[in-house]
Amino acid sequence: MSDGKIVMILSGFPRRSETFALSEILALEQRGALAAIFATKAGESVATQPAGKALLGRVHVLMEADCARQAEEMIRLLKGTAVSGIHGYFAHAPAEVAERVATQLGTRFGFSIHARDARKVAPEVLYARARKAACVVACNHDVAGELRNSGANVHLVPHGVDLERFVPQPFPEMKVLKLLAVGRLVEKKGFHVLIAAATRLQAPFQLEIVGEGPEEKRLTELIRCHRLESKVRLCGPKTHEDLPEAYSRAHILVAPSIVDQTGDRDGLPNVVLEAMACGRPVIASDVGAIGGAVIHEGTGLLTQPGNAESLAAAIDLLAVQHSMLEDLGMQARARVQREYDIHRCTERFHNLLRVAYAC
Amino acid sequence: MPVDIKQFPLRNDSGAIAYVLKGYPRLTDTFITSEVYRMEQQGLRLRVFVIKPCTEPVPSDLLDKIAAKPVYMPAVTSMKGPSFFKWLAVNLKHFLPSLRRVIRKNPAGVFRAAGAAFAQAVRARKEFWSWPRKVYAKEFLQAAMLADMLAQAGDVTHIHGHYCHGATTVTWLASMMTKLPFSFTAHAKDIYLPSLNPAGLLRRKMDAARFIITCTDANRDYLENLGSKTPVYCIYHGLNAEFCNIMKEQPAARATNGHFRVLGVGRLIPKKGFDVLVQACAILHEKRVPFEAIIVAEGGEHEKEIRRLITANGLENSVFLPGPMSQLQLFDEYQKASAFCLPCRVLENGDRDGIPNVLMEAMAVGVPVVSTPISGIPELIHDGVNGLLVPSEDSRALAQAFLRLIRDNRLAADLSRNAQETIESRFNGDKFAARMASLFREGAA
Question: What angle do CA B90, B95, B98 make, to 5 degrees?
Fold first, then answer.
């Protein structure tokens, strides 16, 4: 309705672990909502579809400087462009630059907030910024709830999952229970709790942990001293192409996340949604926003974070209740279809920004 | 949450879901009839309880295909006039037997519900020195009757209220009396009018519910920002079942008579903004653009004003106000229309439409639509892609949009095609029904 379009500011873009950003920005671009795309840092090289390549060609990386300077540079570059709103895609530097530029240009601004970026800003700064923003988009209810408590108006739009790439597969044969865990090998993923739970399991099982990271050594050590080498395997990282197959070979996905010593925690890990889309029940600890997707006894089981006993009991339970396994898996798929369809989520993101910035 | 083995196995036999409705069937709520029908098609067992006896006859083929027959509560007299005790003297007798049975069954629950109703009545009083609000006494009694009906039905495992004011309050209180979990659907006025849920009542009901369903993302955002931890799900109505059936039986063949024919459908109430439509018509009339406008409408508080505007602008021969129509007749009107217009507005008291079902129907038939970017409408219509959006209150922009459609046949054809595609791909009612059913299965587990 108005002539102006949206200016998007990202952090390092693109990044392999942030494919969700690509799909959301692409949805805006394809509907002709974007005036320009800036990044406050250079990104990594990521293989994408042709549509994504064209998008990446439009990204202008700002020179390395503090937020004030980057804002100045942006204002220079935006001269003559009709802008109706400026959106920082992360709550730290991108949001700050967005706020500065918007104040200068007299337009509206807003920002998205995910998980780690929320903890890179002092809470009082974040809350004040959120209250001033025309539009705050949170991707999980953990962080949304925190901001709402501060009096800001927050829209909750999860990053969806591609339901055509992750499709339900029949369960593998039920000789041994096959468990899968996926994630970077860092403390907050809680894989050490999972290994501790594995020592208590009564049912025959096999556990694969996919991913790499700083904790690898410690976890290998842990597996060895529990003599679990034959049952637990750290199989290193897998590409996104290989993941659907990994889910189909497992009976259950386990997400034993915990709050780490610095207070960092998962929001809603993508692997949880992907496994659910593949029709796999998820056993997860009730941390961050995981409980928003994993419904206890509905689409999976929730356990106490850091409690190996409770985790082991949950796994043993599903090991004997086969009908339960399929039932939960079916509900999991239904829930993802209902709530986390990527097309629906990006559509929502687009609508929201269009309305908030009146364009 | 530690795992408790005793809770397994669950839902070997999933029970029935009780729908609690204020009125049913209603012409303005065809989507509820459609929802009930579709939930049964999804294999859920439903029981329908209606708080107000139904007065209007509703022509609908769908009603006969629904297995759940509505159970009505007795009528109560109006609370507006007489004093509370006079009202009680007349009406209490209908409720006493139920109340007695419910108290015998679960005295603590009834006590809790009575406490909640009374506390709400006190909180919501108009001024500090006013009496407690009487309406909650009525809702308490109705809840007791509902609880009694649920106990007699015997197989209900979950209660669901439609519209988050009165019906949901009754559902909430009945849930306390029966210890059954409940959920509700929030639509439009019921969300945004503070007078319908005074003194934080909505938030209280949200906290107590298992989950909440609403029909637009805009509503969901608003509800989520009230701060309750209960999950809120957005499930669009989609095209209603009866309309889908009509479309299947009668393949759309749009037949305009050469005139530019604007169609509007809805009650004559301010939030629909038909006054702006009439003013836009006046502009077309002034410019001597040949056109005709049909507003298929049930009367409402805005009727006088609309009629006055029509005469004041000399539009008696170009703007027509036929009364309400059956879905089949309406389908015929859609096919004859060259443009569909619903210039919705947000009222000062906050009242607004969600995603009007008639917009979806017009788009499904392939009529180019013109509306305003308020509430949930931008979720359906993308300006210039599958319809046109003009600012609300702006009759000039609306007239301009009509002129664009008149002059640019390509645009009209593109909008029409894209609109049909939007409805097929994103507003498929059966798909949403499957989602809602999965929610009931999950939530009632």
Answer: 165
